Amino acid sequence: MGGSMIGNYVAGYISKNLRTDARVLGYYKSHDLNQMLDLPTDLVFEIFSHLHPIDLYNLIRTTKSLRGLLLNRHSRRVWKMSFKANVGIPDCPSDVSFPKWVSLLFGPDDCDTCGANYAMPDFAFRARFCESCMMRNYMSKGFCRSTLGEHPNYKLADIWKLLRYSRQWSGYRYSKAGCQIPQYLVTHVIAREKEIKLYLNKIDAGIPDALHEFEQYKESVAKEIEEDMQFVRFCETWCLSIHDAVIRTRGEITDQLADRCFSRLVKEGRDHRDIGLSALQVAVHSGHITRLRGLRYRLMMTNVDRWIRQAHQDRLIAERKKLVESRQAIVDNFYHEFVVQNFKPTHWKSVPDDQKIRDIKLFKKFINDEAPDAAQPPKEMALSEIRQFVEEAIGSRKKSLAFNLLCALKKFPAKGFPDTYSVIELATSVFACTACLSERNIYTKPDVEVRVGWEDVGRKDLCGTCLDWSPRRRNSDMRFSADGARAVVSLLNLLSLDPNATTATELDGLDPRFVCEVCPPRVIDGKKTRLVYKWRECVGHILADKFKSQENVIRRSPRPTLLTEECAKSVRLHEQWLNNSLDSTNCWACTHCAAHFSSNLTREGAKCHVQVTHGIRRPEVHVDYHSQLTTTRPPTIEDDQINVETKPKTEKPKAIEERKKIFENLYTYHCYVMAHIKPTQWMCLAGAEEILDLELFENFIQDQSADVMLHDEDEALAGIRRFVESSMKTCAP
């Protein structure tokens, strides 16, 4: 067929057009050609001269008589008249006979070397080559090695002007651009070198006018090659136009067959939504279907029927999924409306997830209803069910946390808490991640994230430390920390507050700042500075030190010190500047609606939402939008660090320095250490400066009076003995 790319598509396309024209004119009839042989030869030649060249080629292949008649040298006029009558077909070049040229144009696509298929004519070499033979018989300039050697009258570049070249990159297809590198036939290169060698031998022999003849030879051959290459490009363009026409025709036929097949499938009862017209077109094209019957068509329909059934199942699943998602969105809208009306934005992290609300019996029945037009639950009933479920979920969570806390209070020194859920709101109700309290690596996770108060503990998000460092612990729950509670008691004592009555909200209102005097100061710009902690961060710092002690890391216990209000104001200004670094973080949400209940935006995105959706021209932080950043780690850790100078440089009294030297000598060189501690254990002893922190000696050292008396030496040695024994127990494996 004219739309087929099998075989010589040029001959197929021309034959198809000739048959179509014959049917239109009514000339498409079968006759006995043997009667034509009885006519005179001149009359037969006159009849044949009106035929198409492809018809003459087909006549050669019919009978021996016609073959002999058309291959006779007297039939040259017939061929010439036939080509002349059919304008557009490349005329026969002078170096090829008419029968050979017609065979090259319209013959089978068989390689002249190996007989393989898919070998269209290469007009530059007047032959057919498949891609394998092209690789063996073609060569480029870079791979040519001249056998003529060096000669004063000849250069290797001269031979390329005397050879026809091909830019064909495939044995079956023609391209507009073609191969960018000219390809030469090896046999042509060898033959041309032999001709050049004859002229060079004449020049070397001193024959008169040999050089002039050689130059004329090169000029004439180069001119002939240039003219021939123009003819080659014309032939390739002609074949390329037929190739494009075949592709267009094939596409039209494929579309027509696919449309007919689509209509037939719909009449058979298939849903048109399950039948992909483009997929049908691909199936028809890849299966080389030319008519809707036969073996090829039946094989294609077997595959088509299989993927139509699969498409039908996928469509039903997709429609069901879309219906379920739309019903889930209705339930989520009920829930979000309830949350916005009954909870502050800061409490959104404490309410149950959307998925848990969907599991309520009323909503689960509505979502999974098989009827496509199931009625949604009434709004009042839905809100009532949501309220009951949320209250039970929050109550269960509070009960679990309170039970965990009250069970640990037996070993906790600060007693007197009421046995109700309100115990969670106390500042001493410190909770931390179970994974953080059980397994820690002090070298990679320096602090513990603590949560205090229901607003903080009730959040359903994950522990920031475990989320960053240990993804396998993402399901860890919160557990009461007695050590954290003791740390809060020590901070409340610094603030002169009652541990049994102070809540986390009240402590947040005071917003104090602390520094650790034990941690080594950092020198920045020649000044000693220390890291500043909020009260929750300070508790996490103290808890982290407990783990360092468990890992046999010898260091002094943290000693938090309260900053003055004037110094704390300076720190808060630094923290306000650090909060601006969260502008590009997706942790901001609107406080007027639940649009960002599940997914947050950047600060600019939240402001834009408030301006566009709620019509507020100048949104305010914590009023119109807020940050839902859940981490409580101090901003002084890692990249964002706040460093303040906690103590001004003052000249220490000379008396204090002298008293310190007394106790350093007493601790370092006293005979007690020499007599009772093995030298191999001296590394376990604390530094000399730590013994100065004992209450026994602290008052004596810090006393400003010059005539203060030294403690009794026996009492001092007893204090040193207790301190050394405590250090040895801490150092024991």
UniProtKB/TrEMBL annotation:
<dbReference type="InterPro" id="IPR001810">
    <property type="entry name" value="F-box_dom"/>
</dbReference>
<dbReference type="Pfam" id="PF00646">
    <property type="entry name" value="F-box"/>
</dbReference>
<protein>
    <recommendedName>
        <fullName>F-box domain-containing protein</fullName>
    </recommendedName>
</protein>
<feature type="domain" description="F-box">
    <location>
        <begin position="33"/>
        <end position="82"/>
    </location>
</feature>
<dbReference type="InterPro" id="IPR036047">
    <property type="entry name" value="F-box-like_dom_sf"/>
</dbReference>
